[in-house]
Design brief:
GTPase activator for the nuclear Ras-related regulatory protein RAP-1A (KREV-1), converting it to the putatively inactive GDP-bound state. This is RPGP1 protein. Helix content is 25%, strand content 22%. With 185 residues, it is of the alpha+beta class. The strands form two sheets. It has a four-stranded mixed β-sheet with strand order 4-5-6-7, with helices on one face. A three-stranded antiparallel β-sheet has the order 1-2-3. The termini are far apart.
Length: 185
């Protein structure tokens, strides 16, 4: 079902097959215990941030994704603060949608999240998995490439992965130039 509130976003425990397939585009699933690469603030010793995550080594950069469904779910905590602590402190978020649901960035209360790359599964096509991409950022975030093609629909594969990871890295750099972060330098 579509998630239209922060509680619904962070309260999801199931990974749809489409979401699992999309995670494979982002990177490889890794076991967190004793993980030796960049950990992105995740616990690799005691398992307090879950047992696995998605990691990628791309163009001399290591990326550890904070995947909401892989972070611990706390029964009885409507806000899922364990999950929000990681995702709410990121400055760029990927939002995956199984279906066409309006995404409103204000849905997630965060002082840090400045840019969202929304990836939506495109259904009803016979030529493999397609993803529609849209980007939204706070007003003070400068433009970051690569520009979205028109239409912004990609076939699953290495070119899409390259585009998406490049867009995410550039989004992070652009966010640091936004007023809020520029003042911190």
């Amino acid at each position: 079902p579509p998630q239209t509130s922060e509680e619904e976003l962070f309260g999801t425990t199931e990974e749809s097959p489409a979401f699992a397939e999309f995670l494979d585009v982002l990177g490889q699933r890794v076991q967190l215990r004793d993980f030796k690469g960049f950990r992105g603030g995740l616990d690799v010793t005691h398992g307090q941030t879950g047992s696995e995550s998605v990691y990628c080594h791309f163009r001399d950069k290591e990326i550890m994704f904070h995947v909401s469904t892989k972070l611990p779910y706390t029964e009885g905590d409507a806000q899922q603060l364990q999950r929000k602590r990681h995702i709410g402190n990121d400055i760029v978020a990927v939002v995956f949608q199984d279906e066409n649901t309006p995404f409103v960035p204000d849905m997630i209360a965060s002082n840090f999240l400045h840019a969202f790359v929304v990836v939506q599964l495109e259904r009803g096509r016979s030529q493999g998995t397609l993803y529609k991409v849209s980007v939204t950022a706070r007003d003070d975030v400068p433009f970051f490439g690569p520009p979205l093609p028109d239409p912004a629909v990609f076939r699953k594969g290495p070119e899409f992965q390259e585009f998406l990871l490049t867009k995410l890295i550039n989004a992070e750099y652009a966010c640091y130039r936004a007023e809020k972060f520029a003042r911190l330098e």
